Amino acid sequence: MRFELDEDRALLKASAREWFEKESPLADSRKVMEGPEGFDADLYAQLGELGYLGLTLPESAGGSGFGAIGLCAVLHEAGRVAFPGPFLDLLLAAETLPRAGGERAARWVGV
């Protein structure tokens, strides 16, 4: 059985690859991980602006509505550069917010 991304998720994956390679290349990851915070807050703000922190949230809650497949596509690209910090943790926390906070949930994850 062969699985392929649909057009929207393939574009998401390609844009994520380009962003991660440009903004957080593998060579910089160790330096950031060994820093005092272990992540770059400016990069996480950019992730929010790009909508990556709300990938699985429905559009009605301020998210992108890409679901688990979109999440996997972006996490694949984040893993290629060993993106440092709590990226997956934030995405998982974002999943609980619509259930707890309704439509205002997105403001907590910067989307």
* Element pattern in H and E: HHHHH
The helix content is 55-70%
Count of DSSP-assigned helices: 5
**What's the number of extended β-strand segments?**
0
What is the structural class? mainly alpha
Cα-based radius of gyration, to the nearest Å: 14 Å
User: Roughly how many Å apart are the termini?
Assistant: 35 Å
Walk me through the structure:
By secondary structure, the protein is mainly alpha-helical. 58% of the residues lie in helices and 0% in strands. It contains 5 helices and no strands. Helix 1 packs parallel to helix 4 (67-80). The longest helix is centred in the first third of the chain and has 17 residues, at 7-23. The model has no long low-confidence stretch (mean pLDDT 86).
